[in-house]
Amino acid sequence: MRYLTKLVGTGLILATVTACGSQGTMATNPAPGGDSSAASGSISTSPSAVPKPPGNPPGVSRFDFPPGSTPVPASQVDATALPSGFPNQVKTDNGGTILNLRAQEGGCGHALGEATEQTAQKVVVDLSETKAQTGQMCTMDLRYPVLSVALAAPLGERTVVLKHSPPR
């Protein structure tokens, strides 16, 4: 009986570890969208014009900025709409057409990032998180992954405006 209890306990631990370890990560690519030509000075964001953000190369964690990323000066980042304590690190890659941003996620959620507006003066990036499934047990931790967001044109001197939306 004693050995049966140990065997069942070990089986439960292995099942739990296997279930937790098989959770995939959600892609954080922006959704392909139509044109955003609302205001003069807008930049087209047709699917063919927006490059796909590269994933981290093998061996680079999703919590690290890709090698060769260039920091965006703090004076060029407007993070006033983010909650207190939310990360606001921004770097560029691929000649300025990719923004790499530090985001925040927790528990069963996964961070999302999307360029919602691109004009000649600014790029607005909406940071959000996926909702946890109902009835699912989740850990109470915070993680700070790096997300890649594709731009229709190089960032240049434009301001990066970071905002936060509720979980989707």
Keywords, please?
168 residues, alpha+beta, 28% strand
What can you tell me about this protein's structure?
This protein is of the alpha+beta class and 168 residues long. It contains 1 helix and 10 strands; from the N terminus they run H-E-E-E-E-E-E-E-E-E-E. The protein has a 4-stranded antiparallel beta sheet, with no helix packed on it. A hairpin with a 4-residue loop joins strand 3 and strand 4 (98-102).
Largest sheet at a glance?
Answer: 4 strands, antiparallel
Mean pLDDT: 79
Helix content: 10-25%
Q: Identify low-pLDDT runs.
A: 22-48
Secondary-structure content class: alpha+beta
Shape call: elongated
User: How many strand units?
Assistant: 10
Number of helices: 1
Strand order of the largest sheet: 1-3-4-9
- What is the terminal-to-terminal distance? 48 Å
Radius of gyration: 20 Å
Give the ordered list of helices and strands: HEEEEEEEEEE
Proportion of residues in extended strands: 25-35%
Task: Give the topology, please.
Blueprint: H1 2-21, E1 70-71, E2 77-81, E3 90-93, E4 98-102, E5 105-106, E6 111-118, E7 122-129, E8 142-143, E9 146-150, E10 159-164
Parallel strand pairs: 2-10, 7-10
Antiparallel strand pairs: 1-3, 3-4, 4-9, 5-8, 6-7
